[in-house]
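call fold(seq) -> tokens
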Amino acid sequence: MLEKLQNKKFLFALAIINFIAGLYGLTYYGWKLDTTNPLFWIFVIDCPLYAIIFGALLLSKIKEKNLSLLGTIAIFGSIKFSLWTLFVVFLTVNPLNYLHLVIGHIFLLIEIIIFYKYFSFNKKLVGIAVIWFLINDFFDYVVGTHPFFYAQYFTIILIFSVFLTIIIPFFLYFVFFKRK
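ret:
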């Protein structure tokens, strides 16, 4: 199986799947982008952005380039927004009505679990990622760039999002740094 994961054709196909999934995911945010200042769009398109970045990361692996900061951001964002989306879907709606979202975000998490061993991080890069995602949380919950969900869930979703931003670095530390 490890040979398959390093096969350039497989990595290219998986990168294309991530690009397509990310572009498809952007369609969900069209209404939000229409009402948001374009300077803040990067904070609106959360999960699709990290699927696209992960696809770019896979292409960089094919070319044997090490993009550590990009990798850290892609891994962190993919974990955070996959878990965030699953949490929000299960909290706020009938998940069976959004099965494509549930399955897509589970697959994004599985990708990270499978490929984490091919990327190296250091504490400085994780620190930069934490700062980036705290800024993202600020824009989502103070400026209002978060995706639609019912207002009654605002506080619990805010707490969960910030919790993920804080807990994921510890997860990365134990999974990535302790494996060395």
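The mean pLDDT is 90.
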